[in-house]
Write a structure and sequence with these properties.
binds FE2/S2 (inorganic) cluster, Rieske Iron-sulfur Protein
């Protein structure tokens, strides 16, 4: 990975801000690596079925045991990287975790019940995927979810 000096890092961000340019890949904690604070799901807490649906074993996912909790699934066996949120009891949402602007991870904002890009661009989206504001031009891709007992099923196709 190319090293960025502290001075170049700061100058780049200030220059971008002064010119009104997008800061999403210039400055900030998440924007360099594209990663937000959503915790990853444990590898033994889900399976991928032959039809590519994802079966999440809720009893192994403490982050989804409370309203507003979220996890991410980054797995090369599936075509998208996901964020799964428990909005309320028996109300879950599955969405692509990649902001449609430049691919930085979005995070769930429980107080506003929306997704917000972790970059300084900060595009926000409804849990339906619809953009609220920001640099992103298109909505987040969302996926249907259903529950079967203690299993949450996310259908990718
Ligand atoms: S990557 Fe730019 S707003 Fe999300």
């Amino acid at each position: 990975m190319k090293k960025i000096s502290r001075k170049a890092f700061i100058v780049g961000g200030v220059t971008a801000a002064a010119t009104g340019a997008c800061l999403c890949t210039k400055t900030g904690r998440a924007t360099i690596f594209g990663v937000g604070d959503t915790p990853p799901i444990a590898s033994d807490a889900y399976d991928i079925a032959e039809d590519k649906s994802i079966r999440i074993h809720l009893d192994r996912v403490p982050e989804l045991a409370f309203d507003g909790g979220s996890i991410k699934i980054l797995d090369t066996a599936i075509d998208d990287s996901l964020i799964i949120v428990r909005i309320a009891e028996n109300d879950y949402v599955a969405s692509s975790i990649k902001c449609t602007h430049r691919g930085v991870e979005v995070e769930y904002q429980a107080q506003d019940k929306c997704f917000k890009c972790a970059s300084l661009g900060g595009s926000t989206f409804k849990t339906s995927g619809e953009k609220i504001h920001g640099f992103a031009k298109s909505p987040l891709k969302t996926y249907p979810v259903s529950t079967e007992g203690d299993t949450l099923v996310v259908r990718l196709s």
